Structure formats: C-alpha cells, structure tokens
Amino acid sequence: MLRRVLCTMLLMGALPSLAEASQGHISVVLLGATGDLAKKYLWQGLFQLYIDQVSSGHSFTFHGAALTDLEPGQKLMFDVLKKLACPPDESPNRCAVLKDQFLKLSQYHQLKTSENYTALNREIEMLLHQEGLKEAGRIFYFSVPPFAYTEIARHINSSCRPPPGAWLRVVLEKPFGHDLESAQQMAAELMSFFREEEMYRVDHYLGKQAVAHILPFRDQNRQFLDPIWNRHHVERVEIVLKEIVDAKGRTSFYEQYGVIRDVLQNHLTEALMFLTMELPGNLSKAEEVLQCKLQALQSLRGLEKQSVVVGQYQAYASHVQEELQKGQDYVSTTPTFAGVLVHSDSLRWEGVPFLLTSGKALDERVGYVRVLFKNRAYCTQSEALRDAGHSQCKPKQIVFYIGHGALNTPAVLVSRNLFRPIMPKSTWREVVGQPDLHVFGQLLSDYYMYSPVKERDAYSVLISNIYHGRKDFFITTENLLASWAFWTPLLNSISHQAPRLYPGGVENQHFLDFEMMSGELAFTVAEPVELLNPSGPMPSDYKTIQSKFRQSPLVSAWSEVLISQLASDVEKTASRAVARSGQFHLALSGGSSPVALFQRLARHHYDFPWRHTHLWLVDERCVPLTDPESNFFSLHNHLLQNIRVPYFNVHPMPVHLHQRLCVEEDGGPELYAKEIMALVANASFDLVLLGVGTDGHTASLFPHSENGLEGAQAVVLTESPVKPHQRMSLSLPLINKAQQVFVLVMGKGKHDITTQISRVGHEPRKWPISGVNPSSGQLVWYVDYEALLG
Ligand code: BG6
Which segments constitute the Glucosamine/galactosamine-6-phosphate isomerase domain (predicted)? Predict the structure, then answer.
C-alpha cells in the first residue's frame, strides 16, 4: 500500500521526483503511536516536519507502531492523524494537500515480536528497492515507557538497522533513570545496542523557543554581554517553572520521582547550562557546544540539604492513597514543590545565586529564565521623572520567557536601560504587547520585547532538530550522568525530609516564599499551624507527638517541625528566665544537628531576648576558633552573625591560649569554669542544649572518658576517638546542675543509638548520655521520626 502511494505521488509530482529526491528516503518509525504523547504532540510534530521538508530533496514514510493488533491499532492511529491541525502560518489549500499526502504516507504496524520487526525492516527495504530510492536514514522515536527500551533496542539493533551509508537515529523520552546509579545502568544497556551518535535523548525544554534561543542570543549579543555576563554584574538568576495542575492521575509515576527528578534535574538544569556555559567559538559545532555544557555542569558546587526547600500540596497524600491504594496512615515525603539554590564554582559565576524553582498546584502556570543585574546607580530625580525615561535606577534584567503566564507567548525581554539586543529578524520580531502590564517589577514598555515570528511547540522544534542531526539539542550520555551526579546526593539527603505542606492554588499565599541567607534557603514564613495539625484526613504523623523517653518528656516530629518546636521552646525558656532574673544563660553544643536550630532562631525569632542572653559552649574542639571544625565557628556562622547579642555575652571556650591549643598548663578549663562561676548563678545554666553521638557520647564526654563523667571539675579536657581528638567540655555534674536540659537527636543514623539508650539505665561510663539527669532541673528529649523510628 505505502509503496503504491509513494509511487503514485512521485508520478503525480506531489513529492519531489526521484531525481529531486536525491537526498534519499527517510523512514520515521513512531513507537507508541497511539499513546498520549504521540496524540498530543508527536504526530503534529511529524506533520510539521513533512510540511517544512517536503521540498528538501528527501522523501518520507511514517510508520506508527504499537502493541495493539493491526485493525484496532490502525483505527486508533488514523483517528489521531485525521485531526492533525494546519499551522496558522500555512495556507489552507497547501496544508490540505500536504495533510492528505501525509496520511497516505503513514501506515500502522503491530510491533510485538521479533518477526514483526523483521517484517517492518523487509517492508522498508522492499519499498526502497522497488522505487529505486536511496536510503538516507531511519528515525525510531521511542514514545514508550523506559522499561520497554531494552527489548525494543535489541530488536532494532538486530533487525532494523539501515544499510551502511544511511544513518540511524533513535529518540528516547525521559525518565532516563531515577538517580546516578539507575541512569548509569540504563545508559550502559542502551550503549550495548546503539552508538552515542545514534541516540537522541529528548528534553522537551530544549525545544521551547525561548530556551533554544538563549545560546544564539548570547552569541549574537556578545558585544553587549561580554562585559556584564559575569559575577561582577549579575545579581541573581531565577529559573522557574510554575504549574497549576497537580499530580492527580500520575501519582504512580510522581510518587517515585517528585518535582526535583521530574523537572529540576532535567528541564531547569538544561536552561541553567545554557546560561552558565562558556560560549563555544562556533555555535554550529554540536560537539563544542556539548563540551562547554559538560564543563558548566561539572563546575556546579555540590548541593547541601540546606540548599533546598521542599513542599507538598496538601491533597497529594489523598491522591496517592486513592490511586496507589495506600492506607490512611501512608505518609509520602515526595516533594511537589522545590526551590533550590545552586552555585557555580567557575570563575565567571562564583558567588552568583541561581534559584531553580518548580511546583505543582501553584497559583499560576508560567515558565521563565530571569537574569537580574546589579544596579549600582542612585537616581536623584523624583519618581515621576525617573519613570518617564530609561532611568539607570530601574531594574536591569534579561528574561527568556518560556511561556504561559501574563505574556502567554514565548518571548525575550531586555530592559531598555541595558541595551537594544540584536535579534534574528527572520525568526523573532519586536512586539509592543500591553505596555501597562507589569512584568518582573517593570512596565512592559520598559523592555525591548521580542516574540517568535512563527510560534512552534517544543516537539516540532525537536523533531526538526532530529531530522537535521543537531545533537546539541539533545542530552548526551556524559551530560546526563553529570547531571545525575550533581542531583543524586541532594536527593538522597532529603529522601526522608518532611516537605512543608501547602494548600494549593492561590491559597498558598506566601507559604512557599523562600529566602537566601548565608548561602542557604529557608521559607520566609513559619508553617501554617492548621496544616501542621490538620484535623481532616492527614496522617497524624505530621503532628508533633508528646510522650516519654527514659522517663522524661519526649517531643517527636519530622525534623522541620521538630526544630520549629524546639526553637519556640528555647525562646519560651529564655523569656521566662529573663522575666525572672534579667538574664538567660544558654549553653549550646556543636555538631550538625543544632545547625538547623541556630538557623531557625536566627530567622524566625525576632522577639528572642538576645540582649539579655549569654551564650556558652557545651564543648569545643581543640582547633582555632576560625577553623571550620570549631563549634564556635559554626555557632558564629549560623547564629551569631545574624542576631544582635552583646559581645560581652558571648563566651567561647578558651581552647587557644598562648598561641597553642588545649595545653593543660595553660589552664583553659579552669578559666572557663571561673567565668561560669562568676556570671552564672550557682553555676546552674538556664538551659543546656545537648546532642547524642552514635556511640552514646554527649557534649565531648565519650564512653570511658577519664575526665568529666564524675568528680568536681566543672570543665575538662577530653579525648575523642575521632579527629580533632582533643576537646574541651562541660562535665556531666555541671550539666546536671542546669535548670533545663534539652537533648536533640536527629537523623536515621541515630536510630540505633536512640533505641539502645531507650533501654539502658544510668550507665554514663558506657553511654555518657545516660548520665544526663538534672538534679533539680528538667530534661526534655527532642527526637525526630527518623531517629526514633528509623
Ligand atoms: C514534564 C513533566 O517533563 O514537563 C511534567 O514530567 C511537567 O510534570 C511538564 O508538567 C511541563 O512541561 P510544559 O511543556 O507543560 O511546561
């Protein structure tokens, strides 16, 4: 049938003549031809390819394939093809003719068994042979779930490769793995069937016109951008994809992936690379582009837990419970919203914050890449005058507007006080839009704004790039693995972190706003109480639970909630102490767990009586205070530098006297003890915050320590089994004199020790923490779910 059609069309002159078709014949095989993606985008993209390339000298046939039997499959597929739309820029008559041809050149195949693949190959060969057509190449578009890739790849490799001289291009859709390991595994499997140059991994954001124009824009505007496209001039960059839709109907996929894997690891990272990579000498050389991109990926600084804020829309849990048949008590920690602060360590970008944000169930649908420049000018005129001209005081920004939102079109915006950009006239035209509209804090009339002459959906752009063999629009194995290598440690570190709940839509208000502080991200407002303590169908695990641990009160919750509870309990204790005695003496431990508390206190407790607070150290490592290992250094970084506490009230441990560290005869412990006696009534701290080590140590009191577990010495030098070995510590008897002792235990790594100490009695020599037992004060345990439940 196809053969007859091709032949008749060639004779009718509807297709290029055989001589004209000298570029050869291209067979496009669409696997998953009746699936959602094919219906929504791929057939339309293939039709567009045909429209654009009908006179290119290539002839085409289109083979839709699926597992469905021939007849029903054929019907399903042609139902889709009949509905193909004509692009608005195409004349209706020409389009109707081309659509008719396209339908005739398309055929359905059932591709299930190896015989089916062999038969398809035979058909293609026969057709070409009988028409005397030279074969240019074959495109196999895998619009199927990744678990089917290996088998299809095997069949194609063994029975559908084109003959020498013709190319093979296989097109693959994400997800390309779930983390670095699974991506490596999948890549290795594919590489046993295909060569790197044969694989086209799709990231449809690379086909979005505004994203695809970032590199050409940078290239064509080098004269303006060269001096300013760097850390000296760029204040920050925002890469954003906000969505209104939620994950309903997709939870079986979404629950395993979440927003970071679904959108940030791929779409937003790709846009980030186009912004940060060095420009290759020649943009048309795909290899150079890909190499520069790889380098940019490799210069990203590793992400820490503190680089991210995550959220989950409130109805997500019930969507998961319904669709995945989970019980009411099922708790998902899959984020549906994430904000991530990324830094590049390249010379060009060091210090510039790149904020990547995406989420479902937000208040609007919009995507953009916004580069905000520093503004050093101070304008002396009145605002009316300032607004009238292209004042240097207005924001300076370049926005690659991906789509939707207020503009509802792809666009490139450049603040008029920056420069008038050079844009390719054949593909982008200058537009005025609604001049009074406010976008990114400026009137639209303050920008030069350009939109594509022909708006194309991402898949049409990508299919055209596959046809042209533009590998730089696709994800290579090296780039894919580099991206997973960057994201995987963060994904692992937050896999059990409870996301902040948000109501969804406009009701989110400011709950998801976040801010950068000391290189970290945090939500700007506290979590709404009604979401923390929902009375509806939410699992009770989201609440803080109160019970007993070692006969003392226990507060337990997911870490974020736990920390906010602890911080407010610390503040309450402080206010009570100040009301009682005018002062609050707080002794703080080091290590990683209290860092979150320090940050919380620094950012959310503006009423904290810092002016009346004395800060003491529970323990210290014998290193200079400026050493990152020092507990004081961490306290300074995460708390002191962000609050106003009088200098006189800060009491670091004297580990560094006479230019040497913790030498007994320098009498550091005695000095500290004296200072405590002098300032703290009865040497009884108002509050001591402790942690627990995996070996049961607390403060710097280790199992079998010779000093500090008992005896009269208030402050002692001790030996740690891990570096730095020497420490200074408050002794157990001094700790036990305190009026309140809070013990904070967080993380899965602490589960075993938590279980163990829940069972043991008073055995400080084995487990120093078990010796914490305030003689007249109160002990409270703050243990997160991971430490408590594993
Ligand atoms: C897909 C994600 O890759 O991109 C979806 O899987 C997301 O979750 C979509 O909705 C966004 O793409 P677009 O083109 O609608 O912005």
Answer: 559-781
pTM for the structure as a whole? 0.72
- The enclosing H or E element of 142 equals strand 135-142
* pLDDT at residue 593 is higher than 90: no
Ligand 1 pocket by C-beta < 6 Å: which residues? 243, 262-263, 367
For 330, which DSSP code? Answer: -
Dump pLDDT digits (tens) for 21-71. Answer: 578 999 999 999 999 999 999 999 999 999 999 989 999 999 999 999 999
The pairing of strands 726-730 and 619-621 is: antiparallel
Nearest residue (CA) to ligand 1, atom 9: 263
For the question of residue 496 being annotated catalytic, the response is: no
Tell me: pLDDT of 5 over 90: no
Query: What's the angle, vertex CA 79, arms to CA 120 and CA 82, rounded to 5?
Result: 100
Element (H, E) at 556: strand 552-557
The protein residue with its alpha carbon nearest to ligand 1, atom 6, reads 262
Nearest-5° Cα angle at 23, 20 to 29: 115
Determine the residue type at 397. Answer: Q
E strand or H helix that includes residue 102: helix 92-104
**What are the tens digits of pLDDT across the range 481-525?**
999 999 999 999 999 888 999 999 998 988 899 999 878 899 988
Token readout for 703 is 């199992």
Asked if residues 80 and 38 have their Cβ atoms less than 8 Å apart, the reply is: yes
Count other Cβ atoms within 10 Å, centred on residue 177. 20
Please compute the mean of the pLDDT values over residues 277-291 and round it to a whole number: 96
Pocket-testing residue among 203, 239, 263, ligand 1, by greatest number of atoms within 8 A of Cβ: 263
341 strand-pairing partners: 355
Q: Name the phi and psi angles at 367, rounded to 5.
A: -135, 135
Residue 22's pLDDT is: 75
